[in-house]
UniProtKB/TrEMBL annotation, chain A:
<feature type="domain" description="ABC transmembrane type-1">
    <location>
        <begin position="76"/>
        <end position="267"/>
    </location>
</feature>
<feature type="transmembrane region" description="Helical">
    <location>
        <begin position="249"/>
        <end position="272"/>
    </location>
</feature>
<keyword id="KW-0812">Transmembrane</keyword>
<feature type="transmembrane region" description="Helical">
    <location>
        <begin position="72"/>
        <end position="93"/>
    </location>
</feature>
<feature type="transmembrane region" description="Helical">
    <location>
        <begin position="113"/>
        <end position="134"/>
    </location>
</feature>
<keyword id="KW-1003">Cell membrane</keyword>
<dbReference type="Pfam" id="PF00528">
    <property type="entry name" value="BPD_transp_1"/>
</dbReference>
<keyword id="KW-1133">Transmembrane helix</keyword>
<dbReference type="InterPro" id="IPR000515">
    <property type="entry name" value="MetI-like"/>
</dbReference>
<feature type="transmembrane region" description="Helical">
    <location>
        <begin position="12"/>
        <end position="34"/>
    </location>
</feature>
<dbReference type="GO" id="GO:0015833">
    <property type="term" value="P:peptide transport"/>
</dbReference>
<feature type="transmembrane region" description="Helical">
    <location>
        <begin position="140"/>
        <end position="160"/>
    </location>
</feature>
<dbReference type="GO" id="GO:0055085">
    <property type="term" value="P:transmembrane transport"/>
</dbReference>
<dbReference type="InterPro" id="IPR035906">
    <property type="entry name" value="MetI-like_sf"/>
</dbReference>
<keyword id="KW-0571">Peptide transport</keyword>
<keyword id="KW-0813">Transport</keyword>
<comment type="similarity">
    <text>Belongs to the binding-protein-dependent transport system permease family.</text>
</comment>
Length: 281, 289
């Protein structure tokens, strides 16, 4: 088909919309990055240029130096610990539960399945207060367990893993059993490795959930040295009430985003797969 | 059989404690006066429930939350749909780059995003700078502390950060839309807008139901941004007070009324349930199958 003039105009119009939207998305980040390399005086003078007149990395040095009393590195490590351990447990339990619901037969399986699904409808707010009281009574306030344990499963992911195992070829498992592997052995040595793409998909999202969570750390953590990054950011922001250290807050915000961006680039395909599965629910 | 229970047990334990027990606990709390320090729960004759009727704060929070959802949900759905429609066009180059850029806000925590927006919109921030240099305003606007603006800034931020996620969902299902449908429409003389109206939108209706429901649930539960923007107060003058924030204040703030907070939480759950049902019906879908 030969392109008419009208089509060409239309196509450039589409590009204009796409590029305009890309700028709207990207510019706030650029501004944040730019601000993190500026001295405070330049920010408060209302300069909106992306290039600093007095380029400086002093805020990054501040955040990373032990002498400054900055707890940024501690918060970063806390976030890492909680997110990595939390994700590992969460993904593991979801996979086992999904496998059990799809593959193993036991009385009440159907009832358990529908019962678990029904829990998906319960909004977070209803659970918030009782969860807090339970965590408190278990003596887990101000420990990382408070962040990990209530979030140790993800019902949506149990559902997803069940769907995955339903369509998983049975003969692979049977072959392994004939070779003498027990059910548990088969699960760890055969099933889990073969389910890797599915597991990676959920791991990426679960990790993001832990890393970006704000409410739970705020509720459960009281000692500043046990804060996670999201909570730490808020501390940084509200620390200097008089003149806010926007450059410092921006530097910390950027550093908070970077691990997730790296994760996104590494697992780009999994991200889109995960979204796709959600969309087809 | 034992293996079946064994594999399910850990997940089930978490669900029993943090979901099932929690729901029962929440209902129980809603009928009690809770004193956390003395560790007592005393039955108070539905007083938590009757308090609902006279709570002016609650009315304000409901107004803010509904206004927020009423604007944010349709706008984000519409923008996501249009951008996905354009990106799904086969002849567009550089889709991967666009997607990567668009996805940035979705990756970023609401805490970090809120920081960035508070910086952009602060009194000496770049947004005021741009508006002033364009001579659209003569005095900088105090976006973060002006009752007229604060909630609207949070709305802008929310739309901006959720559009890419919903766009990706739309894109994922647009892949399955057969080209022949567009081609047939073109032969009948349909232009771009016609194709969007008569083919894409009806085709995506089930996905739109999903997007609307997720959007409604998300907006009605909005907490992080309002909390960070206002430092937890819901200010200035209650202009950013959302229902979730109010629940938090009653339960964990100085108000210290956990029983009443539980009532509010149940109320919010019921509201979300009703609103999503209405949205589902309005969209003409049968829900998610």
């Amino acid at each position: 088909m030969k392109k008419t003039k009208k089509q060409k105009v239309l196509k450039s119009l589409l590009y204009i919309v796409l590029i305009a939207y890309a700028i709207i998305t990207f510019y706030p980040f650029l501004w944040a990055v730019a601000a993190s390399f500026k001295p405070l005086s330049e920010i408060t003078s209302g300069s909106m240029s992306l290039i600093s007149k007095h380029f400086t990395t002093e805020q990054y040095q501040y955040l990373f130096s032990a002498k400054s009393g900055s707890m940024f590195v501690t918060w970063f490590i806390n976030s890492m610990i909680v997110s990595v351990i939390g994700t590992a447990i969460n993904v593991f339990l979801n996979t086992m539960a999904g496998y059990s619901l799809a593959r193993l037969s036991f009385p009440g399986r159907k009832q358990f399945y529908y019962g678990i699904l029904a829990m998906m409808m319960v909004p977070a707010q209803v659970l918030l207060i009782p969860n807090y009281l339970i965590v408190k009574n278990l003596g887990m306030l101000d420990t990382f367990w408070a962040l990990i344990l209530p979030a140790a499963i993800n019902i949506g992911n149990i559902f997803m893993m069940r769907q995955f195992f339903l369509s998983f070829p049975k003969d692979v498992e049977e072959a392994a059993r004939i070779d003498g592997l027990s059910r548990v052995g088969t699960f760890f040595r055969i099933v889990m490795p073969l389910a890797k793409p599915s597991i990676a998909t959920q791991a990426v999202f679960v990790f993001m959930g832990f890393w970006n969570n704000f409410l739970a750390p705020m509720l459960y953590m009281h000692t500043p040295s046990k804060f996670t990054l999201t909570l730490g950011l808020q501390v940084l922001q509200s620390a200097d009430q008089g003149g806010q250290m926007w450059n410092r807050v921006m530097a910390a915000s950027i550093l908070t985003i970077i691990p997730i961006i790296i994760l996104y680039i590494l697992f780009n395909g999994y991200f889109l797969q995960g979204v796709r599965m959600d969309g087809e629910k | 059989m034992i293996q079946g229970y064994g594999f399910l047990a850990p997940a089930l334990l978490i669900i029993l404690i943090f979901f099932v027990l929690s729901i029962l606990f929440a209902v129980y709390l809603s009928f009690n006066n809770v004193d956390l320090i003395a560790h007592t729960y005393t039955w108070n004759n539905f007083k938590n429930w009757t308090n609902l009727l006279t709570d002016k704060q609650l009315i304000r929070a409901l107004q803010n939350t509904s206004f927020f959802a009423l604007i944010v949900v349709p706008v984000q759905t519409f923008i996501a749909l249009v951008i996905a429609y354009i990106l799904a066009n086969k002849s567009i180059q550089g889709k991967k780059v666009f997607r990567l850029v668009y996805f940035l806000p979705t990756l970023t925590s609401s805490a970090a995003l809120t920081m960035i927006f508070m910086f952009l919109f602060n009194l000496n921030g770049p947004v005021n700078g741009v508006l002033q240099s364009l001579h659209w305003i003569s005095q900088p606007i105090n976006f973060i502390n002006d009752t007229h603006w604060t909630l609207k800034i949070i709305m802008v931020m929310n739309i901006w950060s959720t559009v890419p996620y919903f766009m990706t969902i739309y894109l994922a299902s647009l892949v399955d839309l057969p080209d022949s449908m567009y081609e047939a429409a073109e032969i009948d003389g349909a232009n771009v807008i016609d194709k969007l109206r008569f083919i894409t939108i009806p085709y995506l209706r089930p996905i739109t139901t999903f997007v609307l429901l997720t959007g409604i649930i998300g907006t009605f539960q909005m907490f992080d941004q309002a909390y960070i923007f206002s430092g937890g107060t819901g200010g200035p003058a209650n202009s950013t007070l959302t229902v979730s924030l109010l629940i938090f204040q009653y339960a964990f703030g100085t108000n210290n009324q956990m029983g009443y907070a539980a009532v509010l939480a149940i109320l919010l759950a019921v509201i979300i349930f009703i609103v999503t049902r209405i949205a589902e019906k309005l969209n003409g879908g049968n829900g998610i199958r």
